[in-house]
């Protein structure tokens, strides 16, 4: 066995209704002032309304920064940090999807009283130094796994995203409460769910850091996600399915936080940056094409995941046959969940494919993890196949 290390969030609370104790969980950490980082949709839907009285009862001061949008950029992070400093925040809560949780991580780092680093200075791997404020993450989508990853991704230009990767960004507590996901529309439920499935799949084939623990978590994550996505999408009030999806996304997050993702994500990022295709949907659009591209080198890994994906529907066969069933099932899953399956269906023009391929090749941090090397011509062919 190769030596490996494994890191994750210190404490995980998986329980429907647990967000109702958010104020108490903050109070237990000995703080007085809390900043909740979230997005405008969360506020407009009133998803925080029932939680705020608890802060008054716990004699805690709470403020809300609700300006996080999809693909947040520098200005968003800096505004949130300024708000945290202004109120003297002593604990940060990320409440929402991956964007809100990623911004919350950076606020916890950069708003610490002793922090002397800038946002530009912490991009990359292990550039963040010092301490951060206590951090609690409450995901409202079952997708990104950001509540258990040491990664924050920020949009830095028209078509560029950069990541801050540091153990400092791992939260103190991940709170998985499916009641907070009940209002998620079917399309968002499907896209975020497939995003989590991609995390599990790419962690399994990650070339440099995969290990027995990450692979074990990835398989269990995929089984939970595949076994519950239909109910979560088509019967969104099914709390049990929603809770299983949250746990599956979390386990997939733990897997890919330690065995990083690869070409599906590398090709998805430019779609979000240039055409604002939601990240989960971008992953869903590229997934079957990247799997077919990787099949020559990764068929045994895909075959090993096929039972988790297909369950009793799996038809026995040799690894190549199991791999084909695996890829076919994932390709059929996208339209079955009501999602578009072609780039042209989400507003991506054909003339942009070469530019997207050039953008994708900039994501070498991810591409090095892919089981098959991706050249510029390969990236273009993958976008053309997805078009």
Automatic annotation (TrEMBL):
Residues 189-387 form the Fe-containing alcohol dehydrogenase-like C-terminal domain. Coiled coil: none annotated. Pfam families: ADH_Fe_C, Fe-ADH. Residues 11-177 form the Alcohol dehydrogenase iron-type/glycerol dehydrogenase GldA domain. Keywords: NAD, Oxidoreductase. GO terms for molecular function: alcohol dehydrogenase (NAD+) activity; metal ion binding. Its cofactor is Fe cation. InterPro entries: ADH_Fe/GldA (IPR001670), ADH_Fe_C (IPR056798), ADH_Fe_CS (IPR018211), Alcohol_dehydrogenase_Fe (IPR039697). Belongs to the iron-containing alcohol dehydrogenase family. This is Iron-containing alcohol dehydrogenase.
């Amino acid at each position: 066995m190769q030596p490996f290390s494994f890191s994750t969030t210190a404490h995980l609370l998986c329980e429907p209704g647990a967000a109702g104790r958010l104020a108490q969980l903050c109070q237990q950490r000995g703080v007085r002032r809390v900043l909740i980082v979230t997005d405008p949709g969360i506020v407009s839907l009133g998803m925080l309304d029932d939680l705020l009285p608890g802060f008054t009862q716990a004699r805690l001061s709470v403020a809300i920064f609700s300006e996080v949008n999809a693909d947040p950029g520098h200005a968003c992070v800096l505004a949130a940090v300024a708000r945290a400093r202004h109120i003297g925040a002593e604990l940060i809560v990320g409440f929402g999807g991956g964007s809100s949780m990623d911004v919350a991580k950076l606020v916890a780092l950069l708003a610490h009283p002793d922090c002397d680093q800038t946002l530009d200075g912490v991009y990359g791997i292990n550039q963040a130094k010092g301490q951060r404020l206590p951090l609690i993450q409450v995901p409202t989508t079952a997708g990104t796994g950001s509540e258990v990853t040491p990664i924050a991704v920020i949009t830095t230009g028209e078509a560029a995203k950069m990541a801050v990767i540091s153990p400092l960004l791992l939260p103190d507590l991940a709170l998985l409460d499916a009641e907070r996901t009940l209002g998620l529309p079917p399309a968002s439920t499907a896209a975020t769910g497939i995003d989590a499935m991609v995390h599990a799949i790419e962690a399994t084939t990650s070339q440099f850091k995969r290990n027995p623990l990450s692979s074990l978590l990835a398989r269990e994550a995929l089984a939970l996600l595949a076994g519950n996505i239909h109910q979560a999408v088509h019967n969104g009030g099914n709390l049990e399915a929603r809770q299983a999806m949250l746990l599956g996304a979390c386990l997939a997050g733990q897997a890919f936080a330690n065995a990083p993702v690869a070409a599906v994500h590398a090709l998805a990022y430019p779609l979000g940056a240039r055409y604002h295709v939601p990240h989960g949907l971008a992953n869903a659009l590229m997934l079957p094409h990247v799997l077919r591209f990787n099949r020559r080198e990764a068929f045994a890994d895909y075959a090993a995941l096929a039972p988790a994906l297909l369950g009793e529907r799996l038809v026995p066969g040799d690894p190549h046959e199991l791999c084909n069933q695996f890829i076919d099932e994932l390709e059929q899953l996208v339209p079955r969940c009501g999602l578009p399956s072609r780039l042209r269906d989400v507003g991506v023009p054909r003339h942009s494919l070469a530019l997207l391929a050039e953008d994708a090749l900039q994501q070498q941090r991810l591409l090095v993890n892919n089981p098959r090397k991706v050249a510029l011509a390969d990236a273009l062919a993958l976008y053309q196949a997805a078009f």
